[in-house]
Design a protein that fits this description.
It is a single chain. It is built from eleven helices and 15 strands. By secondary structure, it is an alpha/beta fold. A hairpin with an 8-residue loop joins strand 6 and strand 7. The protein is globular and about 65 Å long.
């Protein structure tokens, strides 16, 4: 199929485990052929595509049987490392039929913590796209365990979408979109469009997870809202629907669409996705919080507004900013270490710990999750 004028020119396509696996957990060749054909044709029409694909553990499960007594972490490592070979070889063979070359990129959450490493990854992805090569990205489950793991590949693909300043992030699931479950009785309707500032719709979403994957619809919607606020359109649609990518790139209504707002600076996008990657935290007083949340002024975080320093961090590390009540209100890049910060607590006429250009503050209307600032240190 030829799309005369695709509505997006650069996209991230995330394919969930349940889209490309059968009920028994094996790779579904028919669906994989459909999706790779669509992606290859879009790429051959000039659309830049980054593919984030789950399925390594499922592929490993189809070729290897482990005893029930096997430790869960070791099980995931064995299945993912063996299954990833089958998964990437399948993609390579299918894309080769269309004359498209792919590259495999395996990442961990820690790869996004360091700004320079983050920029190096972006250079790699940009260079591949410039050569007409489709990056096929997955979490490196063989080494990603516990706190080093992404929530799921929805989170990973959201980070890639933000990093690459794409036009759209397409999450392909095994359901048709976000359903409105708030009404009692009758047919459930798909929510076709969502304003990222509207948080009421979350009341109608079931928090359950998919059968084989780690993620659920709440995670997808959280990522959809965040990316849409940064100016990236997000679609959640059924990856098993024939021609679904053609429909989305043609502008036809399909699945659920998160409406993009005005674009945000790339550095701010990186910081906004820093939850769980911080090296330390600072507790700020009410005056500093009010200044950082000011809708009319761009303020940096000064030592005079800091009440307490938690953890150990150095210049260039990401740190979490917390209110006196323990709410995480934002993230930023430290300009000096935790030890130096402690010496300057409450002092006037000092350089900012976090300059405004390296500071991200959650929206005032955002529902903040109260937690102990030490939990993620």
């Amino acid at each position: 199929m030829y799309i005369h004028d695709p509505v997006y020119r650069k996209i991230v396509v995330k394919i969930g485990t349940n889209v490309i696996t059968t009920p028994s957990g094996e790779l579904d060749q028919g669906i994989l052929e459909q999706l790779t054909t669509q992606i290859a044709r879009l790429r051959n029409q000039g659309v830049e595509v980054l593919l984030v694909s789950s399925g390594a553990v499922g592929a490993g499960r189809s070729i290897l049987t482990l005893p029930n007594s096997y430790p869960p972490v070791a099980r995931r490592q064995v299945l993912s490392s063996t299954g990833q070979i089958r998964l990437i070889n399948t993609y390579s063979d299918l894309f080769e039929r269309h004359g498209v070359l792919i590259a495999q990129i395996l990442v961990t959450k820690s790869d996004f913590r360091d700004r320079q490493h983050y920029l190096n990854m972006r250079t790699c992805f940009t260079s591949l796209l410039q050569q007409g090569i489709i990056p096929v990205i997955n979490e490196n489950d063989a080494v990603s365990v516990t706190e080093l793991m992404f929530t799921d590949n929805d989170e990973l693909s959201g980070l890639i979408a933000s990093m690459m300043h794409v036009d759209a992030h397409i999450i392909l699931s095994h359901v048709d979109g976000v359903f409105d479950l708030s009404s009692s009785g009758g047919a459930q309707q798909i929510i076709r469009e969502i304003d990222p500032d509207d948080r009421q719709f979350q009341r109608s979403i079931q928090p359950g997870k998919s059968e084989f994957g780690r993620g659920g619809m709440l995670t997808k919607c959280h990522i959809g809202q965040k990316l849409a606020r940064f100016g990236i359109t997000v679609h959640i649609a059924n990856g098993r629907t024939p021609g679904i990518l053609y429909d989305l790139l043609s502008g036809k209504p399909a699945g659920t669409k998160f409406l993009a707002q005005e674009r945000t600076h790339g550095r701010k996008q990186w910081l906004a996705h820093s939850e769980g990657m911080e090296k330390g935290a600072v507790i700020i007083n009410a005056g500093a919080e009010a200044a950082l949340r000011s809708p009319t002024e761009a303020n940096s975080l000064l030592p005079v507004g800091i009440e307490e320093v938690r953890g150990s961090f150095y210049k260039g590390d990401i740190i979490k900013i917390c209110s006196m009540h323990g709410d995480a209100i934002g993230y930023g890049m430290a300009r000096y270490s935790a030890e130096e910060t402690r010496k300057l607590l409450g002092h006037h006429d000092q350089k900012p710990l976090i300059h405004y250009d390296y500071l991200y503050i959650n929206s005032a209307h955002h529902d903040h999750e109260r937690r102990n600032p030490e939990e993620t240190l």
